[in-house]
Amino acid sequence: MEPTPTPATSTIPSAARSGIPTLAAAADLWLHALGPLDRARRALWRLGCRLRLGRDAVTDRSLRLSLVAGGHILVAFALTAVAPLWLLLLGPIVLGVPHVASDLRYLVIRPPLPLGRAPIVAILVGLGAMTALRVGAALGGPLLLGPEVALGGGAILAAIALTPGRARWRPVALAVVAALTVYGVLHPADTALWVGHLHNLVAFGWWLTLARDGGPWRRVAWVAALYVAAAAAILAGALDGLFALAWSGDAAGLEVDGLAATLAPGAAPVVAVRLVTLFAFAQAVHYAVWLRLVPQRLAPRKAPPSLGRSVRDLRADLGAWGLRAVVALSVLVPLAALVDAYETRSLYLLLVLFHGWLELAVLGALLVARPGRQT
Predict the structure, then answer these.
(1) 36 vs 190, more confident
(2) For residue 238, how many other CB atoms are within 10 A of its CB?
(3) Residue 44's Cα: distance from chain center in Å?
(4) Helix or strand or coil: residue 186?
(5) Which of 52, 67, 198, 356 shows the smallest number of beta carbons within 10 Å?
(6) Are 266 and 73 in contact (CB under 8 A)?
(7) With contact defined as beta carbons under 8 Å apart, do 318 and 105 qualify?
(8) pTM summary value
């Protein structure tokens, strides 16, 4: 475990420490909370280290992350069982911006394998155009699903075509993605629905691959089995009685009928509720993957990172003002939700469609990228 940062390595900028009333210092006031939080974190680790499992978890990152992943899956399943509406309402509002920032950090700024500049630029251009279409829709324009799917498919194709790596896989991957893109443009609503559901699985599957590289396969296997068991229980209807109570009423205007029409259109009522419930569970795990599991797996140090260290690493990747922008948006979205939670959630989801396609595009690039040594 790391020591408390010394003044020479403090997370708090010098302007904030000296009391100079600058805009940067005002934007960084939240950093003062890291010291007390880190002290509480160290106290919890000392408590956990009284057990052998806790001591092993400090030194063995693979073991620690498998335990953390299993814990998040159980918590996600429990919250899905008792409060799925509130999970679907508050998850995007509270965790949406940080998880999109993590997407960009680990897929664009420093992907796990070197992809080169060309595929990253191509992905960003395509998904930037997609986001522009979404901004137009948010301002009252039409929702152009067909062009969005074409841009998303084009981003994946460009990523596969431009990433240096395995030449033998490239033609097959390009042919498959091209065929799926044509189908998607012809059936844009169905494609958008599938992307919405499947992108929750992409990050979890990627983390399993990363975790497998860092420890025994048995640790990955039991986490994957736990996830599959939870999903199977939801789809099989094992908890339908409990879910019937959990789905009653609404959460700030969000109700099951509207969610079913969006996430499971045309499905029988019972099947629709199960699919929406599965989405709530998978989304909760998805957030855990991007906010806990991937950052800790790709951290340069194997010991549990302090909050101060995590913030310094994040600032190194995003830049000082990039970090401030993420923090500001992470605060502004929940504040806006205090006025109208339903509309805030809807606007957030409208504007961040690109991140699901980003995950698929970078995954496509990683499939053909030259293997490199991972930490």
Answers:
(1) 190
(2) 11
(3) 26
(4) helix
(5) 52
(6) no
(7) yes
(8) 0.84
